[in-house]
Amino acid sequence: MTPTRLVFATRNAHKLKEVRAMLSDLPGLELVDLDSVGVQGDPPETGDTFEANALQKARWVHALTGLPCVADDSGLEVDALGGAPGVYSKRFSPEQTHEANNALLLSRLEGVTDRRARFRCVLAVVDGEREWTVDGRCEGAIGHGLRGEHGFGYDPLFLPDEAPGRSLAELSMEDKNRISHRGRAFVALATCLG
Ligand code: ITT
User: Which of 10-19, 100-109, 134-143, 161-170 has the lowest average pLDDT?
Assistant: First the structure.
């Protein structure tokens, strides 16, 4: 079977690394990064939903390259914060670093007992003829301190239901990909392309 070749519209090196690791399990997909098709700059994301942002990024790269593109918009929804930081996950703290975002999240949840949260990922594909989205979720809770060295972003604070007693940052990339929002969205994408 010839794999579907898509440009992956991301500047997030961690996402790219995770997805590259998934591809051996998803032989129907081949992803090409932005540098290898000569795209400079960051895809815009000014929407207020994951779907809108994912479509915006994929359309932007498709308009520049004329090639079929996929984009990921993802983030963390915390129930006690009314779904925040959501689409603002990367820009949650003024510093916009993973460390500052995690520190702010811990401080916003000080004394809060309902710590339910989920990671969400929406993938949008734009190929010039069609546009569509698929999504994936990972349910869990926010811990009381940072744990683990793997992954990125909020992983050291996120305790997935499917790995009791461990944070996402304590899982290998392979184990994270099996249960993660992004892993699930890519499986959905490969199924829908297959
Ligand atoms: P691109 O737009 O270039 O793809 P980005 O980092 O801006 O990269 P998003 O807009 O999708 O990506 O923001 C995702 C943010 O959500 C990311 O910076 C993390 O803070 C958080 N996030 C998403 N997936 C995550 C994961 O698997 N583990 C931990 N944090 C994650």
Answer: 10-19
In the residue annotation, 175 being an active-site residue is answered as no
Spatial distance between the Cα atoms of 116 and 56, rounded to a whole number of angstroms: 29
Q: In which region does residue 168 sit, left (phi positive, over 0), alpha (psi from -120 to 50) or beta (all else)?
A: alpha
Q: Could you give the domains of the chain? A: 4-193 (3.90.950.10)
Locate 165 and state its tokens: 């007693």
CB 121 within 8 A of CB 135: yes
Tell me the pLDDT tens digit for each residue of 51-79: 999 999 999 999 999 999 999 999 999 99
**Residue-averaged pLDDT of the chain:** 95
Mutate to test the pocket of ligand 1, among 7, 12, 120 (most ligand atoms within 8 A of CB): 12
Directed axis angle between helix 13-22 and helix 181-193, to 10°? 50
